[in-house]
Amino acid sequence: MAEKGKLFGIGVGPGDTELLTLKAAKVLETVPVIFSPKSSKEKDSIALSIVKPILEKRDDYKRLMIVAPIFPMIENKDELEKIWDSASEMIAQYLDSGRDVAFITLGDTSVFSTYSYVQKRLIDDYEIETIPGITSFTACAATRNKALVEQNQILTIVPKIDDRLEQVLEYSDSIVLMKASRNTAELEDTIEQKERNKEIYSVQNCTQENEKVIEGFSTEKPYLTTTIIQFNDD
User: What's the number of CA atoms in the CB half-sphere (13 Å) around residue 86?
Assistant: First the structure.
């Protein structure tokens, strides 16, 4: 029986290939199977486009196994569980055959990452190494040339606003809206009317060629948009 392969979870960063870690690049130069989820059949994987320059330098690039399971953007938990189960079973088949697998994901592996769902399902049965990546919001702060938080300030990362909004606005010094394309006019008005001194900026397609920094909230709101709100109560 073949020795089981190893699973690598790799955060590929926000968009610029040069922001891949050296460790991530080293694994991508040799691993025989790459899992690169995408949201639909019609859309290309952004994570795959980030690592493609690394992969294309490989002598075996044309023989490289790239698997692109569909991870649709839905909120039905039962359906999502089935999708995660299926992807985990598929990865397990490659690992059982003795092949190492790299699961690539945008940003960092531990922050709202699809990788975490297969990681939890496979960690008891396989060797797993998780390689972190640069997050979108730290890249946005770097683009802005401004710190996110200093000293004892509190940073809050928000994927979706709900009835906790008032508490978030009251007790946070900096707020990251990860999926700013979901922002509603009502949400933006609520934040702007908050009686605290604040700076709001949005970054679209951070670190990519079409990167755009916007004062305030983005009106265009492409998928890769992050909004940062920084309060200044001094």
Answer: 12
Is 0.85 surpassed by the pTM of this model? yes
198 touches 168 (CB < 8 A): no
| Dist CA 174 CA 64 (whole Å) | 43
Q: What is the DSSP letter of 61?
A: G
Question: Which 3-state string (H, E, C) describes 162-214?
Answer: CCCHHHHHHHCCEEEECCHHHCCHHHHHHHHCCCCCEEEEEEECCCCCCCEEE
pLDDT of residue 160: 77
Spatial CA neighbour of 158 closest among 132, 185, 137: 137
Share of the chain above pLDDT 70, in %: 99
pLDDT value for 7: 98
Residue type, position 96, single letter: D
Rounded CA separation 108/105 (Å): 7
Q: Please compute the mean of the pLDDT values over residues 76-105 and round it to a whole number.
A: 95
Residue among 202, 205, 230 nearest 217 (CA) = 202
In terms of DSSP bridges, do strands 101-105 and 33-35 run parallel, antiparallel, or are they unpaired?
Answer: parallel
Q: Count CA atoms closer than 13 A to 67's CA, side-chain side.
A: 19
